[in-house]
Known about the structure:
Distance between the termini: 56 Å
Strand order of the largest sheet: 2-3-4-5-6-7-8
Number of helices: 16
CATH class of the largest domain: Alpha Beta
Oligomer: single chain
Order of helices and strands: HHHHEEHEHEHHEHHEHEHEHHEHEH
CATH architecture of the largest domain: Alpha-Beta Barrel
Largest sheet: 7 strands, parallel
Low-confidence stretches: 322-335, 377-385
CATH superfamily of the largest domain: Aldolase class I
Helix content: 40-55%
Radius of gyration: 21 Å
Mean pLDDT: 90
Number of domains: 2
CATH topology of the largest domain: TIM Barrel
Amino acid sequence: MKPEQIVGPELMDIYAKVQGGQRLTFEDGMRLSTTQNLTGVGYMANLVRERLHGAKTYYVRNQHINYTNICNKFCKFCSFYAKKGGPAPYEMSIDEVRRRISWHLDIPITEIHMVAGINPRLKYDYYIDLVRAVKESRPNVHVKAFTAVEIVQIAQIGKVSVEQALSDLMAAGLDSLPGGGIEILSPRVHKELFGKKLDGEQWKEVARAAAKLGLKQYATMLYGHIETVEERLDHLIQLRELQDETGNFLTMTPLSFHPENTEMADIKGPTADLDLRMIALSRLMLDNFDHIKSFWIMNTVPVTQAALWYGADDADGLVQEYEITYLEGDFGNKSQSLTYENMVRMITEAGRTPIERDSLYNEIVRSEDELRPKKQLQQLAVAQV
């Protein structure tokens, strides 16, 4: 089938830009956002994806630790923070964090991802000790921790600048910042849904401070709530401009809003159409981002498999104890971890080539023994006896 038959006459001028490596405009993005020809949008996003990465699809062996669910921001879209009729409050001690890490010492995890609520009772030293404890427990792991809103809180509680807080955390072992903290760069949505958190300009200042210190970071966008199509595009273009300025972002992850157990439970949940469109739109608009990730926990495994043909080159990771969106067992069959075998199967079934990576996208090649957890090897040995 010829490209014009897939893309259609209404998108052929955008196709020409994509073929020529030209930057797309806001108006181009609006047409990609509203056309009924999702297949054509995905086809163009896949051209960019394969130009950059061929059939490679990256994944990481990671563990999530959410050290507290006590939060004073009360975001309307959040089901994670402790509240009446909701999750019971908790605050992990440093020893508890060490214990959580010990649960998976049989798996060759390369990344620990830590984010949590904004708990005003936690002291400055707690955050420093938290990072140190991870490094002591797993010396070679990459610590990806603290959204921009957490960084601002840490700086405020320590009565230091954001730059000083970042420097102290890096000295303790912080290796990169995750996305999040702003959700979507819209003053209107900020005021209505998460007004107690930092605003867009404050978020950008944290990003600039991290870039100045050489601390790599990731980008996200929460979509599917009250934002408009125009606000989604504006978010992507603001990210693109910030990346032009700093060159510090590694990956963009569009995150679909799940309304279960939030103050916005009356909103319909995400659709595969919107999830795939946001992956494709991110790939086409963010020409200065190397990677686009489909977060399989939010998008589901089948949608993530399709997303690998709609612009995504990253399927995230094996993931342990993810609690931010929903707890395991809630809201149907939504598994929160994949074995190595299932991750590889998910990618290969989609017709792509699985590539294990570290947090900075260096490829990792392991021996056969390393590919299976030690517990699994021990069970195999017992079975053979």
